[in-house]
Amino acid sequence: MSDGEYQADAVTTRDWQGLVVAPELILDFLRTFSRFEFALKAAGFADGDEQRVAPAWDRFGRVIAAQVDALADAEFAASAR
C-alpha cells in the first residue's frame, strides 16, 4: 500500500479513541459522504480513466455556484459565511 491509499480493514474503533465525536456519528458522516461522492461521479462529475476515478468537486462547485448564491434562506446564508 502506498501513501494516500486507504485500506478498509486498517481502521478500527481503536483509532477513534480520544475523539470528542461519537464513532456512530463518524460512521453516519462517512456513509452519507460516500453516497454523495458516488452520486457526484454517476452524474458525470468525475475525472480519471478506467483505472482510477476521482470526484470532480471543483467542477461541481462551479456548476452549482450560481444556484447556491441565489438561495434566499437567511439561515443558510448565515451558515455559509
Write the layout of secondary structure elements.
Blueprint: H1 23-42, E1 46-48, E2 53-55, H2 57-69, H3 74-79
Question: Mind explaining what this structure looks like?
Answer:
- The chain is mainly α and 81 residues long.
- The chain has one domain (21-79).
- 48% of the residues lie in helices and 7% in strands.
- The protein has three helices and two strands.
- Strands 1-2 form a two-stranded antiparallel sheet.
- A hairpin with a 4-residue loop joins strand 1 (46-48) and strand 2.
- The longest helix is centred in the middle third of the chain and has 20 residues, at 23-42.
- It is flat, with a radius of gyration of 17 Å.
- It starts with 22 loop residues before the first helix and ends with a helix.
Task: Describe the structure concisely for a colleague.
With 81 residues, the protein is mainly α.
Radius of gyration: 17 Å
**Backbone structural class:** mainly alpha
Number of DSSP-assigned strands: 2
Q: What's the pLDDT, averaged over the residues?
A: 81
List keywords for this structure.
81 residues, mainly alpha, two-stranded antiparallel ribbon, 48% helix, 7% strand, flat
